[in-house]
Design a protein that fits this description.
This is F-box domain-containing protein. This protein has 467 residues and is an alpha/beta fold. It is built from ten helices and 21 strands. The protein folds into two domains: 120 residues; 209 residues, no CATH class.
Length: 467
C-alpha cells in the first residue's frame, strides 16, 4: 500500500529517529506530512534530516513544535510550508537554508510565539522564491528583524506578504507597523485600518501586496501627548500608544484610512487634544483620498468636523474626496447625561447631518470641496441621496453600515481570504468590539420603531432621490 499522507505526533523531537527509516522509504511517494511535537527537549540541534536527503514528491509540510525543528532535506516539489515554532534558537540559518531548498514553494506561513535575538546570515545571496503567492509571518519578531528577514527574499509580482503580531505578545517586544521599501519610481499605495483588533497597514507596491498588522491601535495622543497626563503613567500608555514605532513613513503613503472610535477618543477638554487629534494624525497623510470613521457616541464626529473646518495656513489632506461616518448614536441628544464629553448643549441638540454639512461647506469655501459624503445611522428614517449640496457633489444618507465596503482588502482580492486563514491558524482570541459593531447596528435597526412621518432636510433647490 502506498502512503500519500502522514501525520506524526511526538512527545519530544528525540523520538524522530524512530521514523527516519520509514520516511526514507516514502521519500518518493509521500505528498503530505504533518509533524506535531508536544514537549521540549534539551540541547536539540535545530536542523536535522527527515528523509536522509530529499523528498521528491512532498507537496505539503506542516511542523508544529515547541523547539525549533527545521528539516535540512531538499524539497523540489514542495508547494505549501507551515512552521509553528514556539521558541527559536539564536540563528536563522537553518530556516533560510530550508527556504533555499524549496524552489517551487507557493505558500509559506511562519508562526512563532517565542522571542530571541536572532543572528542573521544575510551575507549570502538573496533567496529567490519565483512561485510564491502567500508569504505570511505571525510572530514576535522585532520590527527591524522583520524588515531584514523580508528583504532577504526575491518575490515575484503579485505576491501577498503579511506580518501579524501574535495575540500573546508584550508591547516591548512587538514589531510595530512598517512600510515596505519600494524601488525608485515604483508606485506605492497604503490603506490603514484601526479597530479594536489593532492597526493594519495594507500596502501595494507594484503588483505585490504587503499586509502588516499590530495589536496596538492609533490613539488620540499619538503625536501630541495630552496635558495633565504624567509621562509613563497608565493613562499616558492608554492615550499615547504608537503602533508605528519609528516607522512613521507608512503614513505618508496612506490613501485610505479607516478608524473605529472608542471611549479612548471621548476625551475631556482639559487634555488639550479634544477634537484635534484626528487632524494631527491625518495631517501626515498628504495623499489621503478616502476617510472612513465608525462612531459609537459622537466621539469621532467632533474630530471629523474639526478636520473639515481646519483653517490653518496649510490645507489638511488636500486631495481628500470621500468621507464616510457611521454612527450608532441618536441623531441628537436630549438629556444632559446622553451628551458625549466636550459637547455643548447646542451641539448635542443639533442633528449630526447638519453639523457635517456646516463642516463640508466651510471646507468648500476654502476651495477643497468633497466629491462624496456618506452618513450612515440605524436611526435614519430612510435612505436618500442629495446632489451638489453644502459643498459636496454627492451625499448619501443610509441606514446600513458601509465600513466593510471600504475594506483595505479591496486592494487585493486575495487579502480577505488569506487573513481569514491566518486568524484560524492562531490561538483563539476573545470576540472584539469591532466584531460586535455589526451586531449592535442590527440591534438598533430591529429595535427602532419607524415613525409615520418623515423629517425632510432642506435641499436648497437641489434634487433628492431615494437610494
Amino acid at each position: 500500500m502506498c502512503i500519500r499522507s502522514l501525520r506524526i505526533s511526538l512527545d519530544t523531537t528525540r523520538q524522530l529517529p524512530i521514523f527516519r527509516k520509514a520516511l526514507k522509504e516514502l521519500s518518493g511517494s509521500l505528498q503530505a506530512l504533518a509533524i506535531t511535537v508536544r514537549h521540549r527537549a534539551i540541547n536539540l540541534t535545530t536542523g536535522l534530516s527527515l528523509f536522509r536527503g530529499q523528498a521528491t514528491a512532498l507537496e505539503s509540510l506542516s511542523i508544529s513544535s515547541i523547539d525549533p525543528l527545521i528539516p535540512t532535506d531538499l524539497f523540489p516539489a514542495l508547494l505549501h510550508l507551515h512552521l509553528s515554532i514556539h521558541q527559536w534558537s539564536d540563528s536563522l540559518d537553518p530556516l533560510l537554508q530550508l527556504l533555499r531548498n524549496t524552489p517551487a514553494l507557493e505558500t509559506f506561513h511562519l508562526h512563532s510565539l517565542g522571542w530571541s535575538h536572532w543572528s542573521h546570515g544575510f551575507e549570502k545571496s538573496p533567496i529567490a522564491l519565483p512561485r510564491i503567492r502567500r508569504f505570511c509571518m505571525t510572530t514576535l519578531l522585532g520590527g527591524g528583524d522583520s524588515v531584514k528577514f523580508l528583504s532577504h527574499f526575491v518575490l515575484p509580482p503579485g505576491a501577498l506578504v503579511s506580518v501579524q503580531e501574535s495575540a500573546h505578545c508584550y508591547r516591548t517586544m512587538a514589531p510595530g507597523l512598517f512600510s515596505p521599501s519600494a524601488a525608485a519610481g515604483e508606485p506605492l499605495r497604503s490603506a490603514l485600518t484601526v479597530d479594536e483588533d489593532g492597526t493594519t497597514g495594507c500596502t501595494r507596491i507594484g503588483d505585490s501586496t504587503y499586509v502588516i498588522r499590530d495589536s496596538d491601535v492609533i490613539t488620540p495622543g499619538l503625536f501630541q501627548p495630552p496635558r495633565y497626563v504624567t509621562r509613563g503613567s497608565p493613562e499616558a500608555q492608554r492615550l499615547c500608544r504608537n503602533p508605528f514605532g519609528t516607522q512613521e513613513s507608512l503614513l505618508a503613503n496612506v490613501h485610505l484610512l479607516r478608524i473605529q472610535g472608542s471611549t479612548i477618543w471621548d476625551l475631556p477638554q482639559r487634555f488639550g487634544i479634544d477634537g484635534i487629534a484626528l487632524w494631527r494624525i491625518v495631517g501626515r497623510m498628504p495623499f489621503l483620498t478616502t476617510l472612513v470613521l465608525r462612531d459609537f457616541k459622537r466621539e469621532m464626529l467632533r474630530n471629523l468636523t474639526h478636520l473639515l473646518e481646519h483653517d490653518g495656513d496649510v490645507v489638511l489632506c488636500p486631495v481628500l474626496s470621500s468621507v464616510v461616518l457611521s454612527t450608532l448614536d441618536l441623531p441628537r441628544c436630549h438629556r444632559r447625561d446622553e451628551s458625549p464629553t466636550g459637547y455643548t448643549r447646542a451641539e448635542t441638540s443639533t442633528p449630526m447631518l447638519e453639523l457635517l454639512f456646516r463642516a463640508t461647506a466651510r471646507r468648500a469655501e476654502r476651495g477643497y470641496p468633497l466629491k462624496r459624503l456618506t452618513y450612515c445611522s440605524p436611526h435614519n428614517e430612510r435612505e436618500y441621496t442629495l446632489e451638489n449640496v453644502h459643498g459636496v457633489e454627492h451625499v448619501a444618507v443610509l441606514r446600513r453600515d458601509v465600513w466593510a465596503e471600504y475594506s483595505s482588502a479591496a486592494m487585493d482580492q486575495g487579502v480577505a481570504a488569506h487573513w481569514a486563514a491566518v486568524r484560524r491558524s492562531m490561538p483563539a482570541n476573545s470576540t472584539s468590539v469591532s466584531d460586535g459593531y455589526p451586531a449592535l447596528w442590527e440591534g438598533r435597526l430591529r429595535g427602532m420603531a419607524l415613525p409615520s412621518t418623515t423629517r425632510h432636510f432642506r435641499t436648497h433647490g437641489h434634487a433628492r432621490s431615494r437610494v
